[in-house]
Amino acid sequence: MDNKLTIKKYLKKGKFVIPNYQRGFKWGEPNNDHLKECSVGFFCDSLIKAFKRNDEEYFIEAITAVEDDNRIILVDGQQRTTTLFLIFIALEQIEYLKSIQFKLVYDVRKDSDNFLNNLLLGDSEKTIIEDENTQDIHYFTTALKKIREKFKKLEEERKIGDFVKFLNDKVWLLYNVIEETKAITTFISLNGLKAVMKDEELIKSDLLIKSSRYNKPESNSKEELIGFEWKINEDRSRLAHNWDKWLYWWNREDVKKYFGTENRHPLYFLLVTYWNSENSDENKKFDFDNFKSKFIKDNVSAKNTFEKLRKLQKSFEDTYNNPISFNYLGIALKTTTEKEKTIAYFLNEKDEKKREEYTLFVLVNSTHLESINKTKEKDQDVEIRILKAKGAINLVNEKFVYNSAGNEFAFRFLLLLNVIEDNKLNRKFNFNIWNERSLEHIHPKSKAYYKDGGNFKDGNNNDLGSSKPNGKEWLNRDEINENGSEHCIGNLVLLYGKNNSSFGAKTFEEKKQTYFETSSDLKFESRGLLHTFSIFASSEWNAERIAGNKIKIIKNLENIYNGFY
């Protein structure tokens, strides 16, 4: 077959399909911050220049495709093909496109497909767009505007007809046909770094293709072939709809912040959790090739994998929607160094008490295996996780916790105490605080003092001179019993960092007034921290209260952990 085609012959080949593994249409926007012109603009300029030069043969970049009956599945060249279509639309060549039965299909993008179909009908305004922010449609409309701008001069010169003839007959491309099995790898190799798909996107593509694949009917009757194609498209659309629902959920800001998705693909934790739970070979890493060879070998395994992913996604959503499991997993996610294993444990373990136990020991730096296997210290008949829990509690029982070895555990234990209060109300805790966390001194450290040699110093170690500070706002460190100080756990609460600055060196009464002030326009998120709330609800704050609060917190922590020793 001659692979050198004019645009006319190319467009007459059949129905052009943009497969699901292709990225959206983006030629309507500038390529980067340094280039003001977009690819559509460059493409139009090059065609117009060739037309004005009266080139006998002008080649654009090659097209690579899979041929499936009358379907041309575009592996490389979707941007050029779509732009050619938009040029014919912008130049009012709709009847011509209809006469050659040209059709451009966006495989699983319903809104994009509707928009393009309505362009052929001459009324894109009838398009019902489910998502007004659909990326493709934005770029389609931007591209159409750009094309009309570029051809305005030719239109004024009444040369549009001549240009269309030139475009059809004298613009050429190389048309390469490949096997369907090589489509994805060819797509990657041809596009290189400019459009490398993440493993998650490749998995989606292969799952959708193979899950909706059936044996072609032996009959060549038109009705059976149409029914066969309809069934494939129906199943592929249904599966794509499910995938898009998962993607929508994982793209929610609250979900991304909770799981800490960061720069990963939104579906990373869904797919890697499935990989870890179903893959027995720990030497194989999670990537597209391994996932494909293990779980997407054929249409049967692909359908099975898709169904298991659907159930796993439901487990994620159920865990997230249940306040208690949400809260315990939330603590674990903020304190573990083995996030993937922690997530898998919570999805598999349905016993809420065991989830709580796991979280408590992860919080004190126990590893995943130490938490679930109760691993014992070598030469000692005691669990490592218990040693770590007791060690962490001992650190926050010290006289000086703030900015010392126990500082991190003070954050973690105060987080735990606040979460427990939300659990009592069956309420989800707002874990956004973890990236904005702050330890606040209930009695200001600048208003506490101690004797150092012949002089007095405040809690910031600033010299106050030889005279003992006077006034009810001052706290004598030496009067705090139970090995306490202004820097002990009894005088610390968890706050949002942005609220911490509202307190400064204010007295307890002033801080209390600020905390409970409701008339201010400022959003004071720390008011939602129920353990912190209970502290500021105290009628007074002094050395006795600090010592008493320290005892209460330590006993509370010991009682919590003693239930699992």
Automatic annotation (TrEMBL):
<feature type="domain" description="GmrSD restriction endonucleases C-terminal">
    <location>
        <begin position="408"/>
        <end position="554"/>
    </location>
</feature>
<feature type="domain" description="GmrSD restriction endonucleases N-terminal">
    <location>
        <begin position="8"/>
        <end position="207"/>
    </location>
</feature>
<dbReference type="Pfam" id="PF07510">
    <property type="entry name" value="GmrSD_C"/>
</dbReference>
<dbReference type="InterPro" id="IPR011089">
    <property type="entry name" value="GmrSD_C"/>
</dbReference>
<dbReference type="InterPro" id="IPR004919">
    <property type="entry name" value="GmrSD_N"/>
</dbReference>
<protein>
    <submittedName>
        <fullName>Uncharacterized protein DUF1524</fullName>
    </submittedName>
</protein>
<dbReference type="Pfam" id="PF03235">
    <property type="entry name" value="GmrSD_N"/>
</dbReference>
